[in-house]
Design brief:
Layout: H1 3-31, H2 36-59, H3 68-100, H4 105-128, H5 145-155
Helix pairs in contact: 1-2, 1-4, 2-3, 3-4
Length: about 160
Amino acid sequence: MNGAVRFGRFNLVGLLGAALQLALFDLMLNRWHIQGESASAIAVEIAVLHNFLWHERFTWRDRNRPGIRERAMRLCRFHMSNGLLSLVGNTALTYYLVQRLHLPGVPSAAAAVAVCAPLNFLLANRWVYRILKPERSMRPSVPSLRDSAARKSACVT
């Protein structure tokens, strides 16, 4: 898949995740009266999990290796990169914009998402879903008779 198509897919998933994040943030902030920092952190985590599942099946499906262990490792890398950047970046930026600059909550959260998005793509493309070399067989190689004969003849001069 070429880079432009992948970036488009990333942005589509990201827009869906951002809409989910903002809707959850608004719900928690205005309906359930949860503090902005807590609402932001919870909404980000749910959006991160949403985005991971869609990236697995849509954005980077051609780079997925089968198996629960591989998926768990990708989820771990996704949380360490996109999750951590989104959680810290969105929470800190939203806090600053709302508490310090007294801007409205939802537009502040949207601005934070836009600031974090480009770096998230780079981290996902180059680390989380990096192109892996084919795995070597775990079975020890057994030299063939032809290899043994060639080594013997090379030693005899």
